[in-house]
Amino acid sequence: MKKTLLALAMAGVVAGCSTPPETPEDPKLESTDQKVSYGMGLVLGERMSNDLPDLQMDQFLQGIQHGHAGDEEAQRMSREEIQAALMTYQQEMQQKQSEQAEELAKKNLEAGEAFLAENADRDEVKSTDSGLQYEVLESGSGEKPAATDTVKVHYTGELLSGEVFDSSRERGEPVTFGLNQVIPGWTEGLQLMSEGARYKLYIPADLAYGPGGNRAIGPNETLVFDVELLEVNPQADSE
Q1: What pLDDT digit, counting tens, does each position of 96-155 carry?
Q2: Is residue 165 among the annotated active site residues?
Q3: How far apart are CA 56 and CA 226, in angstroms?
Q4: Which of the following is catalytic: 202, 209, 217, 226?
């Protein structure tokens, strides 16, 4: 009677053995089928370690064995039971992720509030009624933008840890955008600046990305931007 490689791998797992089973030799990797089989298992294992960190290996291997054999009588769960288990697992993971996100949001908010409270005591830092803080690095002499204007800027964005999450300077190209199309801290902060000015903006979470965050920014992160206002309502480049 033929046995699959998975069956051989499981054969040594016997609950309550008084002596450890002999370690089987590694299966050969000579033929194309053997190499593909191992490669598929390796790739699937790596994916499962990310997607299902609490994978129960014995049950997983038995499921593969039963599915590959195609013997429905040997299968221990129906498709409906499998679907129900997957839905329950997904709900549990979503609940866990939601709780983790809430905890991180609370931690980030507290850290941001503590930072801003201390930062506000520095003589060079000014605060607005909204809670935005700014520091003048270089004064400009040009016009100030309105919320409906378009601006051209260079900037570097950092988290409180000092990690740079975005930088037009690193990309070597300034950015142009409508001032009413960005986060509130930018809309307010840029209107304080004159053309040619360079400010450091300290933006609390509620004027940034809030509890939702984004791909590079966690929930309720306080952000620090080094911004240089290059031009207000820049003319479009001629073709």
Answers
A1: 988 999 999 999 999 999 999 999 999 999 999 999 999 999 999 889 999 999 999 999
A2: yes
A3: 49
A4: 209
CATH 3.10.50.40 fits 125-232, yes or no: yes
Contact yes or no for 4/70 (Cβ under 8 A): no
- Active-site residue, 115 included: no
Q: End-to-end alpha-carbon separation of the chain, Å?
A: 76
Separation of alpha carbons 143 and 235, rounded Å: 15
> pLDDT value at position 97?
87
In the residue annotation, 155 being an active-site residue is answered as yes
How buried is residue 38: exposed, middle or buried, by Cβ count under 10 Å (0-12/13-18/19+)? middle
Is residue 170 within 8 A of residue 117, CB to CB? The reply is: no
Catalytic residue among 38, 64, 115, 183: 183
Q: Which residue is associated with the tokens 């009624």?
A: 129
Look up 183 and say whether it is catalytic: yes
Q: Which of 134, 155, 199, 202 is catalytic?
A: 155
Active-site choice (38, 60, 115, 165): 165
Strand partners for 126: 134
Write the pLDDT tens digit of every residue in 82-111: 899 999 988 998 999 889 999 999 999 999
Q: Give yes or no: 60 in active site.
A: no
What's the pTM value of the predicted model, to 2 decimals? 0.70
Percent of the chain with pLDDT over 90: 62
